[in-house]
Write a structure and sequence with these properties.
10 helices, 18 strands, 6-stranded mixed beta sheet, 375 residues
Length: 375
């Protein structure tokens, strides 16, 4: 990323901070939610925790839990002040903030709700007189709109999605175990530069109610094998949702595909800058209601009708009917009405897209069909 792009990114964060009346922003990264520290440092790291502090004016300071992650931040080249700290001791973090905000003021904290008490308590004490504000939502909205550089990475991730799905279909054979399919997919996408992959799957018939991490179940003729495959490149994720039948599809599987494909198309037709997550979810769910399957759009059977993508695989907006997040141009979302119905069990189908002023840009080249693997 160019210095100009880095500067524009930090300026975007500071604009949000100004609107929220924040004098500084402390990004916290527990082991499984690293997106905000990555956004401020440009580095990929894998440690159990990390912090990055952005003052209202001045450079970023990074605090890492191990030397390897500290070196990754230095190599990224965005941050000069890189420190290794040993939690729960947060004294050094507090001293940097206190120096930047000498008295009073408001400090935003991302992933505030996930910070261990052993860290948060001493931090509050050391920063007495300053208000600590949960700023997770603020940063979610900052990251919602992608820069040209970010979109380039996500288009690359879309190419890897399509290649990963091709490897998935080729691995579907009678007697193959679920984890063996994942091994083939991982080999393909890692050879193309993917650093990570969030993946769920399920195999079987109409008894399947959802997806899980892959197990040792052996595939049988007639199974429908479903997956969410979500590789990341340079830290940016894109997801493909597809299903493949081992052998000729049944009448129920074909009817289910038609239902889900109609819902995906309705959701995509609603996509444009200025709509909400709820607008897209309603468009999808209305298709299910029209065909008499409205009850299967509820939380009893499914979670969301899609979601955002970025430095985390499941970002805002959540495509739910009550979601009021306004989706701006150059956000990236996946429209996927994944749910259970009696037609053939849990069905998976969805495409990631870049939101545009009057529509969307697809990120996949994979056909949206019900795939069939030979027996």
């Amino acid at each position: 990323m160019s210095e100009e792009d880095v500067g524009a990114r930090l300026a975007r964060v500071r604009e949000a901070m100004k609107k929220a009346d924040l004098d500084g922003l402390l990004a916290f990264a527990p082991g499984w939610r690293r997106e905000n520290v990555r956004y401020l440092t440009g580095a990929l790291f894998r440690g159990a925790f990390a912090f990055a502090y952005l003052p209202a004016d001045g450079p970023v300071t990074a605090f890492l839990g191990n030397p390897a992650d500290a070196q990754a931040v230095r190599q990224a080249g965005w941050v000069d002040d890189v420190r290794t700290v040993d939690l729960p001791d947060s004294a050094e973090i507090a001293s940097v903030i206190a120096a930047a905000v000498p008295g009073g003021g408001r400090i935003g904290v991302t992933q505030y709700e996930l910070m261990p008490r052993a860290v948060l308590g001493p931090l509050r004490e050391a920063l007495a007189g300053r208000e600590l504000v949960n700023s997770t939502r603020m940063m979610d909205l900052v990251r919602l709109v992608k820069s040209d550089w970010e979109l380039t990475q996500m288009r690359r991730a879309g190419v890897v999605c399509s290649a990963g799905w091709e490897a998935f279909v080729n691995a579907v054979k009678p007697g193959v175990r679920e984890y063996e399919i994942v091994a083939e997919v991982e080999a393909q996408i890692k050879s193309m530069g993917a650093q990570d992959n969030f993946m769920l799957m399920a195999s079987g018939g109409d008894e399947v109610r959802g997806m899980t991490p892959p197990g040792d179940r052996q595939l049988q003729v007639g199974d429908m094998v479903r997956t969410e495959l979500t590789p990341s490149l340079d830290g940016y994720y894109a997801q493909i949702c597809r299903s493949v039948v081992l052998g000729p599809p049944s009448e129920g599987q074909l009817k289910s595909f038609d239902l889900f494909n109609e819902a995906v198309e309705a959701g995509l037709a609603a996509v444009r800058a200025g709509v909400t997550g709820g607008d897209i979810a309603r468009a999808e769910n209305d298709v299910f209601r029209k065909h008499g399957y409205g009850e299967y759009t509820s939380s009893k059977y499914t979670r969301v009708r899609g979601h955002g993508h970025g430095l985390f695989p499941d970002e805002i907006p959540a495509l739910l009917e009550d979601d009021e997040t306004v989706i701006e141009e150059n956000a990236v979302i996946i429209v996927h009405p994944n749910t259970y119905t009696p037609l053939c069990g849990y069905h998976v189908l969805g495409d990631p897209v870049v939101v545009k002023k009057d529509g969307y840009e697809p990120l996949l080249t994979t056909e949206r069909i019900l795939f069939s693997a030979p027996v």
